[in-house]
Amino acid sequence: MNSISACTMVDDLPRLGVADSLNDPRYYLVNFENVVTWVGERYDDLLDDDERDFITRFQSLPVPSKALLVRMVMRKGEHFRVDRLAYDEIGEPRAALSPLIELGLVDDAPRLTLDQLFDLFTRDELVSMLGNHLVRPRDRKALLKEALRPVFETPLTFDEWQTAAGRLMVSEVVRLTIMAVCERLRLMFFGNLRQQFSEFVLADQGIYHFEVVPFTKDSRAFQSRVDIERYWQIHECRERFEAGHDLDEVLAALPPRIDNSLWLEARRGRVLHAIARDCERQGELSRAAELYAGSRHAEARIRHIRVLERLGEHGRALALCLEARETPTSEAERQQAGRIQPRLHRALGMAKPSDALEAPVNRYDLVLPRSPSVERAVREFLETPEAPVFYVENTLINALFGLLCWEAIFAPLPGAFFHPFQSGPADLMRPEFYSQRASYFERCLARLEEGSWRDVILQHYRDKQGIQSPFVHWGALSEALLTLALECLPPAHLRGWFERLLTDIRANRAGMPDLIRFYPNAPEGSTRYEMIEVKGPGDRLQDNQRRWIAFCARHDMPVTVCHVRWHDPESGP
């Protein structure tokens, strides 16, 4: 079997292979076995009895049974029709199921609710099975189910459904009993429940390429069993909330504030914030205010202020507003608090607060022939052979940062990389991302003063081509654009942009101007570029765009806002 090495290992740990999905029909089994081995080695001290028992039972299975189990794990749901478990590389499904049933990994007599039964069978099959209980068998499937609900209120085993139907069904139904265990193994491997086992196939087929990062025995997402359980609790609470379960029950199941894990507390805070937003929309303002106060979500304090304002508690709202302006979690929070404060001053009979004026921003007003793309219309109007214009939006500055600081971004620090399918470090959006790598980033940014930055960026552009990165969108970065950028952008401006990115990556890697115009023939020392934010008819600057433009204006970085109106031939010039 052809194996593709996805990462380099240290400390004598085995290499994680990726199965050849084009030539090995059981590629999915190989990949799943790799995950089981990987998790078993790295989490040996944290696994619970159910997980250890599953690993032992799984490894004892014959190959066809292993393969069928993995096929089921990778499909949706826990209930399966046996007649739809036919795979050429596995053979007769009942024979493969027998050891799974014997070991308790599959239940061959599951109780099925009416909803589960309707999920498994087609409308015509259901009419054939339960036609004796239907008054209007020609109705749509959803209506048939509602008509049968009063008749079948409790779950039934497969045999009981057959008795109720009065005839043999077209298939048997089994239930996978270890889906929750497999989900926890997936969580431990990836460090999240967002990524699926299909990542192996995407890597094998060359669709995704990932940076090679060295791993150690401590390269894992969770360092304690408590953290695994907390993550799982938070995930289940989120799912129950989104499914419409009782909010009191969801909140009671949510873990208390987690002070020893910023990233888990951030996940908990997102659930609290989502519940608070729902309460706010439903008019439960006092409850929303209480929940916002307990959330560390980036937007929770601003939402809390607005809810207090709606409740008429202007004094409390102003105190929070001043706190947000003096010690903001982000530029966005400071900006929004600045908008709210004048209203609160008016409500309290106070004088209007004074604010420093923003630096003036250059402006174009253009009247252009109507075009499907306003950015393209402006680019074509402004571009000349001496001053080429590129549509870059958020791609160019991010890419230059990502290429210059590649080593810092992919530094193998504890808690950053723990499986070979990461496009960036796990703590990228956490407050500690920069602080833990400050020395790495300073070495990278020092190249801007040393004069080696152009060579480093070009070298990484060639060597890292196509590798997944949270900052480099390869399809938007041409050699011509990169060459002009390296020639025309001053290193001092690059440092300013990069340092701003590092203060708040989530917010600041978006909102950059749409176009950039280069002046490669301008004299050395003069301005050799201009960034242009394009606004079509009726379009306004968004908050993150205003913050980027204000930053550039404060630091004498050439930026222009171009407002476009479409030419109306009937109204004349």
TrEMBL record:
It catalyses: Hydrolytically removes 5'-nucleotides successively from the 3'-hydroxy termini of 3'-hydroxy-terminated oligonucleotides. Its cofactor is Mn(2+); Mg(2+). It holds the Pfam family FAN1_HTH. Signal peptide: none annotated. The keyword Metal-binding applies. Its EC number is 3.1.4.1. It is an enzyme of class 3 (hydrolase). Keywords: Hydrolase, Magnesium, Manganese, Metal-binding, Nuclease. InterPro entries: Fan1-like, FAN1-like_WH, FAN1_SAP_bact, tRNA_endonuc-like_dom_sf, VRR_NUC. This is phosphodiesterase I.
